[in-house]
């Protein structure tokens, strides 16, 4: 009894002492209640024409206190701000007449017609901002009169600048050799040990999926193969968290499947496999270039009603049954993982849901987290043994932390199955499907 008591206490302490590693795409759908209230204050102050006070509340709303992604200073009617979005810093200022923001994309020492044509074409897709050339700097700019700078306009205008710039800077430098990277010194390098682990598991997961696909009939298993490839995209996006060209390559692979055309699934699967083989062929040095850490302010995807998430989980589980019942556990686990990982990839999820999803990934890919230096192992694959107490304890901890914002969130841990991984995944995702995220 004493061993169990002391052991559990030790595990609780260790679970908090993992390495400081960022996973997945940033979600700004994670504001505590106090931050949500600041948005309401900003909106009310703007309606009262207290514009600078509205800016105070708005930029406080944007600031994620856990990562300190926003710097804001005001002196009377004037002020300055800057915030981070991946490899870019957006800087701005305001006075009693106008608010302006700007971000540097790259440097262009010599004028280039192809570059300018690319930017001109992309300008047509922008709603709030525009590309600009300042001497040799390629920029994006946003500005607004104070009287029209409502919180909603600022949010969507600054988000457009930030997310477009963060994506386009890498692609422009990659596509045009005359361009030079600029203003990315704030990016934090990932430790070499972490890079090695990520490269090793990138190769392991791709090989595992491709070998499994090669061992089954491409036509009969076309649906399961598609699920496996898509869940692999979302797993790499979340657990490896690549940036730059590799992130863009993963998005292109997903685009092959979801493109609205008449091609059969078997052909799309073949093309996705071909693209994965290209990633598999990348050298360590090439992969390492896309592994770095940075701060974010905006999600690149939008929130959804929880019913959309529940439907995704339910649909995947319905398609999992045949593979489970016919003894294809790897396919079954990939399909269960797809239901949640698709949502994590495609939507800006509430932080409570992401934390539960992260626990799910720590159970399913315990060897990866152990290799990264995490002390606690929720599932021992070799012995098919779950750390039941730690899993239940972690779920309760997440629910307690978010109780104020999601008082109806009720994950029934007594319904979890711990006899094997397939049944655990199904029971876990069913509980995720039934959650109520209605706000207080």
- On the 0 to 100 scale, the average pLDDT is 91
Instruction: Kindly report how far apart the N and C termini lie.
Output: 40 Å
N-to-C order of helices and strands: HHHEEEEHEEHEEHHHHHEHHHHEEHH
Based on CA inertia axes, which overall geometry fits? globular
Please identify the structural class as seen in this structure.
Answer: alpha+beta
Give Rg in angstroms.
23 Å
Largest sheet: 7 strands, antiparallel
**Count the strands?**
11
Instruction: Give the DSSP E fraction (strand runs of 2 or more residues).
Output: 5-15%
Helicity, as a percent range: 40-55%
Q: What's the number of domains?
A: 2
Which residues form runs of ≥5 with pLDDT under 50?
1-17
Summed up, the helix count is 16
Give an overview in words.
The protein is an alpha+beta fold and 440 residues long. It folds into two domains: 33-181, Yope Regulator, Chain: A (2-Layer Sandwich), CATH 3.30.1460.10; 189-433, no CATH class. The protein has helices spanning 2-15, 33-47, 51-62, 113-123, 151-175, 192-214, 222-240, 244-258, 265-280, 284-288, 306-325, 329-346, 351-364, 366-372, 388-401, 421-433, and strands at 70-75, 78-85, 88-94, 98-107, 130-134, 137-145, 180-181, 188-189, 292-293, 379-380, 385-386. The strands form three sheets. Strands 1, 2, 3, 4, 5, 6 and 7 form a seven-stranded antiparallel sheet that branches. A two-stranded antiparallel ribbon has the order 8-9. A hairpin with a 2-residue loop joins strand 5 and strand 6 (137-145). Helix 6 runs antiparallel to helix 9 (265-280). The model is unreliable at 1-17 (pLDDT under 50).
């Amino acid at each position: 009894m004493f061993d169990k008591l002391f052991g559990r206490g030790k595990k609780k302490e260790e679970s908090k002492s993992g390495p400081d590693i960022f996973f997945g795409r940033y979600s700004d759908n994670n504001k505590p209640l106090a931050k949500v209230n600041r948005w309401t204050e900003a909106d009310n102050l703007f309606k009262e024409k207290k514009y600078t006070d509205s800016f105070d509340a708005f930029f406080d709303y944007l600031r994620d206190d856990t990562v300190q992604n926003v710097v804001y200073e005001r002196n009377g009617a004037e002020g300055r701000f800057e915030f981070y979005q991946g490899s870019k810093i957006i800087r701005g200022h305001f006075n009693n007449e106008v608010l302006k923001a700007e971000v540097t994309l790259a440097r262009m020492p010599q004028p280039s017609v192809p570059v300018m044509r690319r930017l001109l074409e992309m300008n047509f897709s922008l709603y709030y901002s525009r590309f600009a050339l300042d001497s040799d700097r390629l920029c994006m700019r946003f500005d607004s009169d104070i009287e029209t700078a409502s919180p909603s306009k600022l949010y969507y205008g600054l988000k457009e600048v930030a997310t477009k710039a963060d994506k386009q800077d890498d692609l422009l430098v990659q596509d045009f050799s005359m361009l030079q990277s600029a203003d990315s010194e704030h990016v934090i390098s990932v430790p070499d040990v972490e890079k090695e682990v990520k490269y090793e598991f990138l190769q392991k997961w791709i090989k595992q999926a491709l070998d499994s696909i090669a061992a089954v009939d491409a036509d009969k298993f076309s649906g399961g193969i598609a699920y496996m490839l898509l869940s692999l995209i979302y797993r790499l996006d979340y657990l490896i968290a690549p940036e730059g060209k590799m992130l863009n390559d993963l998005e292109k692979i997903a685009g092959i499947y979801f493109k609205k055309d008449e091609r059969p699934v078997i052909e799309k699967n073949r093309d996705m496999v071909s693209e994965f083989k290209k990633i598999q062929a990348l050298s360590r040095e090439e992969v390492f270039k896309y592994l770095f850490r940075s701060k974010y302010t905006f999600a690149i995807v939008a929130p959804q009603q929880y019913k959309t998430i529940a439907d995704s989980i339910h649909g995947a589980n319905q398609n999992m049954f045949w593979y489970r019942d016919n003894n294809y556990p790897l396919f079954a686990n990939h399909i269960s993982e797809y239901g949640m990982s698709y949502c994590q990839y495609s939507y800006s999820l509430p932080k409570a849901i992401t934390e539960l999803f992260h626990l799910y990934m720590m159970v399913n890919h315990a060897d990866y987290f152990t290799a990264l230096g995490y002390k606690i192992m929720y599932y021992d694959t070799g012995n098919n043994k779950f750390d039941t107490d730690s899993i239940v304890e972690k779920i309760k901890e997440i629910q307690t932390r978010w109780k104020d914002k999601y008082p109806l969130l009720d994950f029934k841990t007594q319904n979890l199955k711990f006899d094997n991984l397939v049944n655990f995944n199904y029971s876990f995702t069913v509980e995720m499907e039934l959650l109520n995220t209605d706000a207080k």
